[in-house]
Every structure is written in structure tokens, then in C-alpha cells.
Amino acid sequence: MKESELITLSKEVLTICEEASNAVMDIYGADNDGIEIKQDGSPVTLADLSSHKIISERLSNLDLLFPILSEEDTKKEYTDAPIFWLVDPLDGTKEFINRNGEFTVNVALIENGKPILGVVAAPAVGEVFYGIPGFGSFKIANDIEHRIITSEQDQSNCRITLSKSHQSKADEDFIAETKNHFQSVEIVPAGSSLKLCRVAENSADIYCRLGPTFQWDIAAGQAVAEGSGASVKDLSGQSLSYEFKAETKNPYFYCAADSKYPWQEILETLDLD
User: Fold this and answer.
1) Among the residues of 168-252, which ranges form H helices?
2) Whole-angstrom Cα distance, residue 107 to residue 116?
3) Does residue 209 share a domain with residue 259?
4) Same domain, 50 and 117
5) Cβ(225)–Cβ(196) under 8 Å?
6) How confident is the model over 40-56, as pLDDT tens digits?
7) Residues contacting 84, CB < 8 A, separation 6+
8) Owning domain of residue 119
9) What CATH number has the domain bearing residue 82?
């Protein structure tokens, strides 16, 4: 798609995410969030389903009739699609249930396996991010929008953003190894796809995911990160690729603010077996 078309489309997606976010927050403030357990053992709430319904209906009403792949769509027939919407109606359901506010509504547009537009809304913390790789990324907070960009890696201090709910031994090993390369290491905890956004807005230098994720978890955040100047790669340095198939897992990956810093050399020292 043309850049001008993506800029126009981003405004429409922002409106859709705002409506879904409002529905999520209505349930967030209620006594009953209708928690159920899916077949894979993960929780789903009324907020997940309400957001899914709104986003799916609104995207379907756009002039551009691209197919939609959503985490909460259990009846989709999957075929090859060169361009499609990839949606996580509520990323960070555990954060939602735990009431820590670190959950997001994620919508990405995928073309030829790459995210070309992404919106990440974090309604409980009052932040919205959107990005178009090759054009730019932006943050909206307190009704003020500003461009976000990354910077070169500080050679003495490193800021690592990690999950509030999924820290593992591999994360601990990564932190320990990073301390061998910097005078100081700061941990920036964040939930859901906000970790990618923290790198994008230059609040963190690196997010390394050494555990399971699905493609709808990170596609929108990747668009925001790449639009800001960050890079998102698997541990071999290859770009991630997305496809119109359900339950597609991501490889281990990292999101680095400074794409020139040799993070792969650090990651290669880890024992991830």
C-alpha cells in the first residue's frame, strides 16, 4: 500500500481501537469480567470478546475489505492472504485480570508477511501508539500526539524491558550476561505489547523475548517499533514473518532501539536449550 493510504487508514484504525478500548474499560471497572479458560489453558474475559466483536465489525465495514485474523476468532477458514488484519483484542489478559493496567488492544495490517501499520492502545494507562515502518511512529497521551524515535545505545548503561507476568530463567540469564557488557543495567517492567512500545519511545534499549508468543501478540508493536527506528529480529538476525494462519507461534526474538549494536553476539552466549 502507498504511504498516503496508510496514513489515512491509521486514523480510522485509531478510532476503532478507541471504541474497543472504551468497551474494555467498561468491563475493567465492573465487578464481573466473565473469566473463562480456553482449550489451551489461557484465560479469556468478556473484555477480550467485546473488543474482538467491535474490531472485527468495524474493520469489516472499511472500504478495504481485507481478511481479519483475530486471536478470539475460532471459526475462521485460513487461506493464503497477501494482505490481512492481525488483531489481538486484548493483549495481556493476565494483566487485565490482575488489574495492573498493563494490557493493550492491538491491530496490525500485514502485507507480504510484514507489518506495515500498527496501533497499540493501552487504555488503563492512557497511552496510544501507532506506527508505519518507513514513515514514523507516534504516541498519544493526554490528547497530545508526538513523534517517537529511538537513539544510539548508551555504552555504559542498558535499560532492559521485561514482562511483569512472564519472567523466566532465560530472562535472568540474559540480564546476567548483559551486566557483563555494561556498567549498569536498569530493568523497565512492562506488560503485553507495551514492551515493544517502551523501546520505540526510547524508554528502554532492548526487549528480548525468550519464551512463547503468538504472532498477534507482537505484530502491531513491531510496526510501532520499526516506525520509530528500532529493529525486531529473531535470534539469528532475520526479520519476523507473519501469515494468515491460526495459532502461529513466533520464534524467540529481540527488539533493539539501536539496530547497529551487536545484540546477537550477546544472545549467542546464552544457553537456551
Assistant:
1) 169-178, 194-200, 215-228
2) 11
3) yes
4) yes
5) yes
6) 656 678 899 999 999 99
7) 66, 67, 68, 69, 109, 110, 244
8) 3-148
9) 3.30.540.10
Among the listed residues 97, 87, 102, 108, the one whose alpha carbon sits nearest the alpha carbon of residue 44 = 97
Q: How far is CA 72 from the centre of its chain?
A: 16
DSSP state for residue 214 in the 8-state scheme: B
> For the whole prediction, is pTM greater than 0.90?
yes
Do 66 and 115 lie in one domain? The reply is yes
Domain assignment present for residue 272? The answer is no
Cell (9 digits) for 57: 465489525
Nearest to 89 by CA among 112, 72, 69: 72
Mean pLDDT in residue range 128-139: 98
Per the DSSP assignment, residues forming a β-bridge with 207 are: 255
pLDDT digits (tens, 9 = 90+) for 173-220: 999 999 999 999 999 999 999 999 999 999 999 999 998 899 999 999
Q: Domain with 244 in it: what CATH number?
A: 3.40.190.80
Q: Are residues 197 and 92 in the same domain?
A: no
Q: Of 148, 170, 201, at which residue does a domain stop? A: 148
